[in-house]
Automatic annotation (TrEMBL):
Its main location: mitochondrion. It holds the Pfam family Pam17. It is a multi-pass membrane protein. Keywords: Membrane, Mitochondrion, Mitochondrion inner membrane, Protein transport, Transit peptide, Translocation, Transmembrane, Transmembrane helix, Transport. This is Presequence translocated-associated motor subunit PAM17. Component of the PAM complex. Signal peptide: none annotated. Belongs to the PAM17 family. It comes from Galerina marginata (strain CBS 339.88). The keyword Phosphoprotein does not apply. InterPro entries: Pam17.
Amino acid sequence: MEAFTARGLRASRRSPLCTVTKNPFFLSRLQSTTTKARPQVASGRQSAQTSTTSSLTWPEYLAIRRNKRTWQTVATIPCALLGLAGGATYFGNLDTDPLKPIMGIDPFFFYGFCTLGCVGVGALVGPTIGTSIWRYRNRRILSLIDNKDVEFFSRVAKNRVDASLQSPTHPVPDYYGEKIGSLHQYRQWLRDQAKYKRKALLPEK
């Protein structure tokens, strides 16, 4: 048994495969081929990444728009509360004389209206802050989003109802397409526009 294993070991050492693998020329060629294959794999990964970042599909774009609206809503609530707190703190600490109206209005009502005005200012500033945060989070693809915005709003302007057909009591539903956040909502928006146009052009008798 020992003799058999010894013969097998000698035979394996003398085999052509072992002779080739010990050849320095073969090892240098093998190393060169592996080093050439690695950059190809890396370049393939880079091309895949550039292909994914160079284009933006409609579902991805609409999901990003929905995320933008979420950020605007989330930022509006705390800004409105801050406006309420600031207005109540400032106007609540002012000295008031009930016998001296301000601009012909009772001071308590006047300061109450001013506090509500602060809430409104906070609600108006909130979407701007939310949009700024959203743009910072998506700063790497802002150029793609801006290009898609141009195409999206051109589609909205092409398919929406003419503003001259609307009435003060029955405005056009989502005239600017702000509530569109998916392909399903876009198709529903198209159906709503077509339904409104039919009713406006062919009123029921």
